[in-house]
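Researcher: Hi, I'm a grad student and pretty new to this. My advisor asked me to get structures for two proteins we've been looking at. I'm not sure of the right format, so I'll just paste the first sequence and hope you can take it from there.
Model: That works fine. Here's the first sequence with its structure tokens right after it:
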Amino acid sequence: MKISKTLYLSLALTIFAKPTVALSDEEPRGILATGECLKKVTQDRGAVTVSSTLVLQTPREASEKVIKAHEKLKAEIRALKLPDMEVDTANYSVNQECSYNSKSERTCTGYRATLGTRFETSDIPSLGEIISVASQNGAQDVSDLATFVSPAKLKAEREGCLETATQNARAKALRLAAGAGVTLGKLLSLSERGDGGPSYPMQGRAFSALSSIPEASAGVPSIDAKPTDLTVSVTSMYAIQ
């Protein structure tokens, strides 16, 4: 089949006559500056986990007895009526209690049942009262003591810090412009960087085997919480006039 020269020319025009867009390699001119707000935030929440454990001959007996003992302990702690208290089960287990001698011979003495509850409150100093009540009511373990900033307060503090961070970014941009001998123009872009917030919980301490030291655990330990460092960062881009 023969194709005329006119048809070849038409196809060539169709293929090569499409419009093209030229991409510029030139980056936008501007001054990039980051701003920060550094703040000390007072911790407003605290938590501690209290556990009861018993070893008895059968798993059912161990489970029933430890639940009964732990419910009594929880009632004593709830009677403190601490503000904004939240209570949730931290752990529960029933395992055979066994040991091995030097000849690797196994000896089992019964079943260990363990039940733990986490208590959280907005009254951080009163965590010491929980520890004291736990030790006086047969708790075998007090652990995961933590003080921290609540999510609601952390969010409010972060948002309150954004204006300071933005002002800091502009101040840095002005210094950069002055050092470069140019004039700072209008703001082109502004964005928040990361979360900048502290991890949760903020700090933890543990007390174990309280029932073995009744004299030391009879008092109320002092619980202190240091302020948390909060950093909020923003990134800004300003035009150059």
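Researcher: Oh nice, that was easy. Here's the second one.
Model: And its structure:
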Amino acid sequence: METLRSAREHATRLDELKSLALQATLLLPLASAGLLRLVDPAHPDAQAFEMRYAEVKQLQKAAEEAAAQNTGWHRKLSVEDTMAGLEVARRHEDSFWRFLSGRWRRLSKTLKAAYDFSARAVPPTAVSLLAQLLQEYEAAATAQRARQSLETDYRIAQLEMTWLAVERLRGKLHEPSLQYLLHHPQAAETVRTLSALQEPLLKLETLLSQTLADPAPSLSATWPTCWKASASMPPHWKSSCLCWVITHHCPPPSNPRSAASLDARRTGSRHGRQIPPAIIPLQ
């Protein structure tokens, strides 16, 4: 923005303001968590995060594959019941006297109600069935621990959304607006300020589009709405947008009389009505 030396120069760059606000909106979650450095693939923290994220996804895939192998359950046992049942099965399943154990009989009855043994050509043993179920739970727990550790270390609430934002932004690293924000001395504060301008800029753009579509627009009728739409912008950006309105909204004069009228509109008055505060060039 420092290169925009005057209001007139700045006024021709409404698209640049829009681009900055859009990039800031995408960067806001990372800026709020102090993680703008993740966008730079060469940064050590970004590389460490990427490696840990890949590990989390690999563990999640392993957990999903373990769950997919455990078919045939009407109702899976809880982790606690699985561990207790596996202990009972290992102790009694191969014993000739297992029918004398009340714990084994209860386990056998529970498994017959919870699992469809008829769906298998060779019914699995209680030990193999429960061991496989326990492996599923352990794989899921391992993936969850890795995920929680990564989210805690980087203060991230939505891991996948954060990674998608990082990937999307990395694809835009060649864009000057993104480079400007990432290398700004007060990057986080600048991102927060600009992201708040996204909605006002969209409203102003819509208004300008509607105004310029009018073959005989009236600046005096348009100005109050433009001023209101830009109310939340910092002074120098407000100047840019409103200068853009004046510069692009007023057609070139075709005669000295209309030229005088155009000068009056650009200097601040029209038919005795004062246009709101003057547009101040950037220093």
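Researcher: Is there anything I should tell my advisor about the second?
Model: You could mention this: The first helix runs from residue 7 to 11.
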